[in-house]
Design goal:
8 helices, mainly alpha, disordered C terminus
Length: about 210
C-alpha cells in the first residue's frame, strides 16, 4: 500500500491531537465539566478546525471510549483464550480488565472520573461488542470442558455487569486493589457457576407416563 500523503498525515495528526486533549480534559474534570473550547485549548489547532473532525464533545468522548473499549476487549480476549481451566478463564479475563483500568495514568484518571457516564450514556459504544465476544468465549470454554453447560446469555450479562461495577469500585480505592477485586470476582463466579451446574444436573425429569 502507498504511504499516506501529507494531507492524510496532517488530518490523522489533528484528529489524534483532539482526542489526546479530550482524554486529558475529561480525565481531569469529567464529561459534564468539559466543553469544546476546553478541548481545543489543549491543542495547537484553530477553534474552527475542531469541527472538521467532530461535531461536538460527545463525539470526541465516544471516540475515546471506543478506542479504550477496543483495547480492553483485545487484552481480555487474549487472556481468556489462553486460559487452562474454568477458574483461569474467569480470573485471567477479569484481571486483564482491571489491570487495563489502572495501567496508564491518563486512562486510569479518565475511567475513574467517567465510568458512570460511560455506562449510562455511552454503553452502546462498547457493551454490545464486548458482550458478543464474551458469549463466544464462554461457548468455546464450554466446548473445551472448562465451563459447565449453563445459560450463556445470563452468564455473559452477569460477568459484564459485575466487571464494570467492580471496575468502578476498584478505581475509587487508593491504591486501586487489582488483586483483591480479581480474587473476589473469581471466587464469586467460580462458585456460582459450579452451583448452577449442580442445580441443572439435579433438575428432576418429568415422570414417565404410566403404561397402558
Amino acid at each position: 500500500m502507498a504511504a499516506p500523503g501529507r494531507r492524510e498525515r496532517t488530518k490523522a495528526a489533528n484528529r489524534a491531537a483532539i482526542l489526546a486533549a479530550g482524554r486529558e480534559r475529561f480525565a481531569a474534570r469529567g464529561y459534564d465539566a468539559v466543553g469544546v473550547r476546553d478541548i481545543v485549548r489543549g491543542t495547537e489547532l484553530a477553534s474552527g478546525t475542531f469541527y472538521n473532525y467532530f461535531p461536538d464533545k460527545q463525539a470526541v468522548f465516544r471516540a475515546i471510549v471506543e478506542e479504550f473499549g477496543a483495547e480492553a476487549r483485545r487484552r481480555v480476549r487474549d487472556a481468556r483464550r489462553s486460559a487452562a481451566g474454568a477458574e483461569d478463564f474467569l480470573e485471567s479475563g477479569f484481571r486483564a480488565f482491571f489491570e487495563f483500568i489502572v495501567a496508564d495514568p491518563v486512562t486510569f484518571a479518565f475511567l475513574r472520573r467517567n465510568l458512570g457516564t460511560i455506562r449510562e450514556r455511552f454503553g452502546d459504544s462498547v457493551l454490545p461488542a464486548g458482550l458478543g465476544e464474551l458469549e463466544e468465549d464462554i461457548r468455546a470454554a464450554m466446548a473445551r470442558g472448562y465451563l459447565p453447560d449453563v445459560d450463556v446469555g445470563y452468564l455473559a450479562h452477569a460477568m459484564l455487569a459485575v466487571g464494570l461495577e467492580l471496575g468502578q469500585e476498584l478505581a475509587e480505592r487508593d491504591p486501586p486493589d487489582v488483586e483483591g477485586a480479581t480474587a473476589f470476582v473469581t471466587a464469586l463466579f467460580s462458585r456460582g457457576v459450579t452451583d448452577l451446574s449442580r442445580r441443572y444436573s439435579a433438575t428432576p425429569c418429568a415422570p414417565a407416563s404410566p403404561s397402558s
